[in-house]
Structure formats: C-alpha cells, structure tokens
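re: that chain from earlier
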Amino acid sequence: MTDTPEASSTQIADAVGLQVSRTKMYLAELVASGAIVAEGSSRARKYRLKS
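^ sequence. v structure.
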C-alpha cells in the first residue's frame, strides 16, 4: 500500500498472492484496528493507509 495511495481488495490480493476472500478478511481487521481506511462502498471500495 505504500506504492499506491489507494487500492482495491483485488489489487491488494494480487500483489500479496492471496485469495480475495482472505484478503478482505485481513483488510477488515486492519480497518477495525485503525491501521487503514476504507472509502467507498461494495465494488467501488478502496483502501488506503491512515494519514
């Protein structure tokens, strides 16, 4: 996430080599902990590092 300011769950899954479903689980944990921010809804959701 440091190379790209915003990324979708599919882009992140491809970059780290995980399935999208597993990636979404990890992203939800990171959002809940406040490490990252989710913007948008459903298919348009993008994730970025918290400023």
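The first helix runs from residue 9 to 16.
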